[in-house]
Amino acid sequence: MEKIIVLDFGSQYTQLIARRVREQRVFCEIVPFRVTADDIRRMAPKGIILSGGPASVYSENAPIPPRDIFNLGIPVLGICYGLQLIARLEGGEVDRAAAREFGKAAFTAEDRDDLFRGMPEKFSVWMSHGDHLTAIPGGFVRLGHTPNAGIAAIADRGRRIFGLQFHPEVAHTENGSLILRNFAFGICGCSGQWTPEHFVETSVRKIREQVGAGTVICGLSGGVDSAVTAALVHQAVGDQLFCVFVDTGLMRQNEAEEVQAAFGRFNLRVVQAGRLFLAALAGVTDPEQKRKIIGKTFIDVFEKEAHAIGRTDFLAQGTLYPDVIESVSTWGPSVTIKSHHNVGGLPERLRFKLIEPVRELFKDEVREVGRVLGIPGNLLGRHPFPGPGLAVRILGEITPERIDLIRQADALFIEELKTAGWYDRVWQAFAVLLPSRTVGVMGDERTYEQAAVLRAVTSVDGMTADWARLPYDLLARISNRIINEIRGINRIVYDISSKPPGTIEWE
Ligand code: XMP
Fold first, then answer.
1. Which residues of 369-390 are buried (b: 16+ CB within 10 A; e: fewer)?
2. pLDDT of residue 431
C-alpha cells in the first residue's frame, strides 16, 4: 500500500498535514521525529514530509531527524520548521527573522515546474514562523518568495528534496491541497488508491484473519466510532460478533431507539441500566468523580453481559487515529485535562484481545467508511457525545427530573438547529443545566427555576474550538421555546467561550 509519512516535530498542524494528504486518497501516517533511517526504510514510504514545529533549529533541544533521511532516495517535503531543518542539515543558513510573520502573505512562485504546477504566479499563503532562511544550501534552487521571506520555497531536484516556509496544509493557503497533491503524485509517484471502499475491503480481510473461528464483543455507544467498528466487524465475521448497548439513562433523546433500529439485525443486547447509574451517582457533584463512577459502573455492567454471552475472545473498540498519535506524539502524551472514561480498563479486566479496525482513521474518514457500510445518515452525522453522557452536562446533582429537563432542552435545541440548517455547520451543540436557580416572571407570577446554557462550537477535531456565531433570531427562537415549553427552566444563556481557554463540555 503506497503511503507518505509525516515526521512530527510538534506542529499544531501535523494532523492536518496527514488529513490533507489522505484527502488525495494517499494513505498518510504520522511518526515521531526520532525514528531511525532503518525504521523508515522498513516502512517504505513513497514520500516523507517534515512537519513544522515550535522549536528553532539552532536551539539546544531542537528536534533533529536522522541525518540519513536525505540519502534514502525518498522524496522529502519540509514545511516551515521542516524547511529550516533541511537548510541547517544541508548547509544553508537560518536566521531569526527580522520580521516575524504570522498570517497571510503574498507568495510569488518563480518556478512552476513540479511543486507549483498548475498554479498562478502569485497567490496567498499562510505563514507562522519566527526564523527564516537567509542562504540556500548548496545544490538547491529558490522556487519562490514573499515580501518578508526572500527564500520561501526551495528545491534540490536531483535528490527530490523540497522545502516550504509556509503551510500548505491550512485552508488559508491558496492552492495548498494542490501543492500536496503535486508532491504526492508528481514528485513521489503515488497513484491515489486509498479509498473508503478499499479500506473496508482490506479491514474486513484483516479482521477475518485475526478472528478466525473466535468471537468478538463490541460495546455500542450510540456514537459514530463504535457504530462503524461494529459494522466492519460484522461485515467480516457476521454472527461471531456480539454487540452490547448499555443504556445508562444518560443518553440523548431517541439515542437508544436509533441504535436498536440500526443494529437490531446484529446479535445485540440492550441493557437498561439507568437505575443502576442513577443510584451510583446519587449525591455526587464533582465532575471527575462522576466520570470515575460512570466508568466503573459501565465496566461492571459490560462485564456481566460478557459473561452472559459466554466465551468471547476479542473486544472491538472504536479507537481513532488522534487517540493513537496522542500517545506517540513528539513530546509524549499531553497532560490529562479530563479523564475520558469510555471502555478504558475493559481489556485488562477481561483479558480480551483487542480489535481496533478504525485506529488509523480520522473522524471524517470513519464517517465515509460508515457510509460505504450502509450505516444510516442520522447516526453518522450525529454530533460527538461524551461517554459519561448527560451526567457531565448537569452541573451539580443528577436526579431523574434534571436529566429529563436537560434532555428535553437539548432535543429542542438540536431540532431547531436542524430546521435552520445549522446542525451540520457546527461540530457540537448541546444544552447544559446550571446548578443554581434564577428568578423570573411568567404571567403575573414570580418563578424561581433552573437556568440552562446553550453551547454550540465549531471545530475540526475537538482539540480547539470556537463558539458558533448562531444568528440572534435563531437563539431567540430557541430560548423562547425552551422557556415556554419546558417547565422548570426559566433562563437561557449562550456560551461565548472558545477552547482554549475553555473546554467544549462544562465539566
Ligand atoms: P472537552 O470538553 O475536553 O471535549 O473540550 C473535547 C471532546 O471530547 C468530548 N468529551 C468526552 N468524551 N468521555 C468522552 O468520551 C468524556 O469524559 C468526555 N469529556 C469530553 C467532548 O464532548 C468533545 O467532543
1. bbebbebeeebbebbebbbbbb
2. 98
> Could you tell me if 159 and 70 are in contact, meaning their C-beta atoms sit under 8 angstroms apart?
yes
CATH topology identical between 3-187 and 196-380: yes
Distance (angstroms) between ligand 1 centre and the Cα of 259 equals 21
Q: Is the CB of 461 under 6 A from ligand 1?
A: no
Kindly give the number of the ligand 1 atom that is closest to the alpha carbon of 465: 5
Please say whether the beta carbons of 255 and 220 come within 8 A.
Answer: no
* pTM higher than 0.85: no
Nearest by Cα to 57 from 2, 122, 132: 132
State the pLDDT at residue 389.
Answer: 95
**What is the grid cell recorded at 269?**
443486547
Residues of the chain with pLDDT under 70: 97-99, 326-350
| Catalytic residue positions, numbered | 80, 167, 169
DSSP, collapsed to helix, strand or coil, labels residue 21 as helix
DSSP 99-125: EEEEEEEEEEES--SSTTTT--SEEEE
Q: Is the CB of 387 under 6 A from ligand 1?
A: yes
Answer yes or no: is the C-beta of 334 below 6 A from any ligand 1 atom.
no
Other C-beta atoms within 10 Å of 402: how many? 18
- Tell me the CATH number for domain 3-187: 3.40.50.880
287 φ/ψ angles, rounded to the nearest 5 degrees: -55, -45
391: Cβ contacts below 8 Å, ≥ 6 apart: 250, 277, 281, 290, 294, 398
Task: Specify the fold of 394-494.
Answer: GMP Synthetase; Chain A, domain 3 (3.30.300)
